[in-house]
Design brief:
The chain is mainly alpha-helical and about 200 residues long. It is about 55% helix and about 10% strand. The protein has a three-stranded parallel beta sheet. Strand 2, helix 5 and strand 3 form a beta-alpha-beta unit. The termini are far apart.
């Protein structure tokens, strides 16, 4: 059976210890022995370290996490196209400030992101506001366009299909309050508005 491995990385949670794991990290070193440790391998070792560190033991025990790391490592070497890596929140990585450590951290994460983007199946998401253009990584760039009013009302009606009176009431309120209607053009904000 061929597996596709989706991995979600919240970039704000990446720590320097993940990026510096390299070959010193025992759990990955066991699987890396028969392979040359190049820059690509270091990138994957950092990814494995992040997955290991951030996966709670109530979701996966140590044996399961070890198996997962083995599978990631083998997939990287044998069929890297089966890895789907979602990197989220580049804009949330601490911006440079008077603290040189924060600027260094952001720079290192940027280098790691650039390495991961060389792998097929890597997706980077970011708001442009906090970081600047992801185009600086020389990857295709897509922007999420705001929903139209028609899209918003259609979503609300589908969301409230079992309670159409509530759906129509929300549509009416959105028509009356333009500032909330503009906020509702963002899919995440619209979902939250529908939950209120």
């Amino acid at each position: 059976t061929t597996w596709t491995w989706p991995i979600f990385v919240r970039l704000a949670d990446v720590e320097i210890e993940d990026l510096e794991a390299s070959t010193s990290w025992t759990s990955c070193h066991l699987y890396a022995d028969e392979h040359r440790i190049d820059d690509g391998a270091r990138t994957i070792i950092a990814l494995c370290h992040y997955v290991w560190r951030t996966t709670p033991t109530d979701r996966l025990n140590e044996r399961q996490k070890t198996w997962l790391i083995q599978q990631l490592w083998a997939t990287y070497h044998d069929q890297p196209r089966l890895l789907i890596i979602g990197l989220d929140g580049l804009d949330e990585v601490a911006a440079g400030s008077a603290d040189a450590g924060i600027g260094h951290h952001r720079h290192r994460i940027g280098e790691w992101v650039a390495s991961l983007l060389r792998l097929p199946g890597t997706i980077l998401t970011s708001r442009l506001v906090g970081y600047g253009s992801p185009g600086s990584f020389r990857v295709p760039e897509w922007r999420l366009e705001p929903l139209s009013d028609e899209d918003v009302f259609s979503y609300v009606r589908r969301r409230f299909a079992e309670h159409p009176i509530d759906g129509e009431e929300l549509c009416r309120k959105l028509k009356e309050n333009r500032s909330i209607a503009l906020l509702a053009r963002n899919p995440l904000a619209l979902t939250l508005i529908c939950r209120l």
